[in-house]
Amino acid sequence: MMTIKVNGTTIGTVTTNRSMTLEEAMWAIGYDITDQDDCKNGYDNGVEGFYLDDDGNYSFDVEAAEFFAE
After folding, report:
1. Alpha-carbon distance 20 to 2, whole Å?
2. Assessment of whether the complete model's pTM goes beyond 0.85
């Protein structure tokens, strides 16, 4: 099982039998972090790590994310 945390808050877990990238794990829990609509959805739902930048773009803070096996 892989856990995704941002600022100490668990935002999702993924059961897998292989290694994954953070982008793949985020997709598995329902967020394509390369897609503006998915990032907006995460932001609107108050999911830790999603934010609206000064230019009006929705993003996910990959640097704040921790991704590890449990």
Report:
1. 9
2. yes
Q: pLDDT by residue (tens digit) across 9-66?
A: 999 999 998 889 999 999 999 999 999 999 999 999 999 999 999 999 999 999 999 9
Place of tokens 């704040």: 64
Helix (H) or strand (E) holding 68: strand 65-69
Q: Do 46 and 52 touch, CB atoms closer than 8 A?
A: no
- Which helix or strand (DSSP H or E) is residue 28 part of? helix 22-28
For residues 2 and 22, give the distance between their C-alpha atoms in angstroms, rounded to a whole number. 10
* Pick from 63, 50, 49: nearest CA to 9: 49
- Identify the CA nearest to 34 among candidates 15, 56, 50: 50
Domain spans in the chain, listed from the N-terminal domain onward:
2-69
